[in-house]
Amino acid sequence: xxxxxxxxxxxxxxxxxxxxxxxxxxxxxxxxxxxxxxxxxxxxxxxxxxxxxxxxxxxxxxxxxxxxxxxxxxxxxxxxxxxxxxxxxxxxxxxxxxxxxxxxxxxxxxxxxxxxxxxxxxxxxxxxxxxxxxxxxxxxxxxxxxxxxxxxxxxxxxxxxxxxxxxxxxxxxxxxxxxxxxxxxxxxxxxxxxxxxxxxxxxxxxxxxxxxxxxxx
Length: 217
Hints:
Elements: H1 2-30, H2 34-60, H3 66-74, H4 80-104, H5 120-143, H6 148-162, H7 171-177, H8 191-212
Helix pairs in contact: 1-2, 1-4, 1-7, 2-6, 3-4, 3-8, 4-7, 5-6, 5-8
């Protein structure tokens, strides 16, 4: 149990290190070119997802995302008590990852974001982004389990570009990014609607996707 929780916390920490750290580095080197900064952010995040899912998947299942944990709980694949521990480990890991990124770039460790990310278009984007992520995961489990690391990495790297919200698709990531006043940040006042959209998408995915993909063995 402790091994699984440590894997979830560590993996989520590395995920946030890649998201926030690459955002800081990309914005610094892009010299005001937001497109280049976003490209760097997307590539680094996709690469990290592939690495942590491949290495930690056999340990904990490599959720690194309360939405993924909730989806598997609704399917009956993980007990609710263990799911709650997973979520706590993910949130703690995400916050530690943000703080680690700040320290690496000699920024104040404790911050609150001032980046506005709100409105119906971005909320709907989070529904699409989260549903799509779960679509890739459930589809991969049913059709090509060994391809899941690559599928998730490619999907998130692409979703940075085809969603108005840049595809947070993760409540722990959303919460942690509200604690970073950098390229990847989101204002704390705007985070709850993102998280609500992600939870809504998770419910839709748990309801609809089992009808599309047969249950894995």
